[in-house]
Fold this sequence. Notes:
Keywords: FAD, Flavoprotein, Membrane, NAD, Oxidoreductase, Transit peptide, Transmembrane, Transmembrane helix. Belongs to the NADH dehydrogenase family. Residues 361-417 form the External alternative NADH-ubiquinone oxidoreductase-like C-terminal domain. The chain is α/β, with parallel strands linked by helices. The protein is built from 13 helices and 25 strands. The strands form eight sheets. It has a five-stranded parallel β-sheet with strand order 5-2-1-9-21, with no helix packed on it. It has a four-stranded parallel β-sheet with strand order 13-12-11-17. A hairpin with a 4-residue loop joins strand 6 (93-97) and strand 7. Helix 1 runs parallel beside helix 10. The model has no long low-confidence stretch (mean pLDDT 91).
Amino acid sequence: MLDVDKLSLNIPDTTKPRVVIIGGGFGGINVAQRLKCKDFQVVMLDRQNYHGFWPLLYQVATAGLEPDSIAEPLRKMFGSDKFEDFHFRLVKVNGVNPIAKMVHTVVGDLAYDYLIIATGTKTNYFGNDEVKKNSFPLKQVPHALNLRSHLFQCFEQASMTADPELQQSLLNFVIVGGGPTGVETAGALAEMRKHILPTDYPGVDFNRMNIYLVEGMDRVLPPMSPEASEKTLKYLQEMGVVVKLNALVEGYDGYVATIKGGEEIQTQTLVWAAGVQGALIDGLPAEAVERGRILVNRYNQVLGYDDIFAIGDIAFMKTDKWPKGHPGVAQPAIQQGKLLSKNLRRLIKGEKMEEFEYVDKGSLAIIGRNRAVADLPGNIHLGGFFAWMTWLFVHVMALVGFRNKLVVLSNWVYRFFTYENGTRLIIRPFVRKGDTVRQQFINKYNTE
Length: 448
């Protein structure tokens, strides 16, 4: 029997400066890949053993891709001789002690010379515990797999009921949040409704399937340009998505979504894509945190510390151009990670560090086949086929690993010509906690 008390981080002693990186996202891997192990011992701590390309999670959730095509094992990424003093540990970090220069984990403590916090974000439910309990977030691979199983269980059950009210609740899908995740998920469901589901479930009238996109602001894709928002709204409406602007979901009990003002939607599926907050680490003083993110200077040093850094979505760097911090997309994390690796090498040589200057490479969102929007540098706004091709190219190139690029590209080419999603499998039936009706259904058909 495994004795947890006998586990430890088991990191070898070193005479080199030890850099501890918390988080294996875009920021963390870009620092680690560029730090020379002859100069540093690099230790990465994460609760999952892979780096994931989260902008494509919605495609895993809607059966467009398998999870291993958007993820790469961290040990594989750092397995060559080039990273001989790199150490990865699959462990949860409980907190840090800046005075003792120590990281606390569930299996022991680890001293550091330099600490890099790259923990990213987590779902923000804005204090609504009922929504948190009953909705589907979309921030991790398990979230996407749970949602995928749930979606196809809904379709299976809709094909087996003659009760019109029950069937309608199974065919109503509510997506909360009109940002890229919400828009892209709504578009993917609309394409499934048109091209795939009528063939798979000929006994179900999918004209009754409703896809609601609920956004609290007055336009979809608020971070992007008004031109992109206008085009996106047009595309969604053409695809039959019901878009509700200036609308807030006040509650969801697993069966009824209540919108502020009293409107109710009978649904067994509510996807929560309405917001994120920083995945903070305990131990930093309150004055180092603002708006749920860690305050950093232009070198990504945490306020009040010269040996602790924060990069990516968790970092809040105020500049004249970005008074509210950089956008929560991959590029700031990638660029900050690359620069920080250079600055750490400068630091140990006693050289002056370089200030971070974000290079905005634009924003993209895809709504469906030949439907996408792009805000590019130079105040260039694209829509339709050219934006769609740009989105495909950028996302393939951003994937880690040649295999993943090849698998995703081949999947997309196959789907372009066939309209097929090839991963419509319920591998592990999903039951929301407390859903006794669904559990009874699972027990009836999932017997050994």
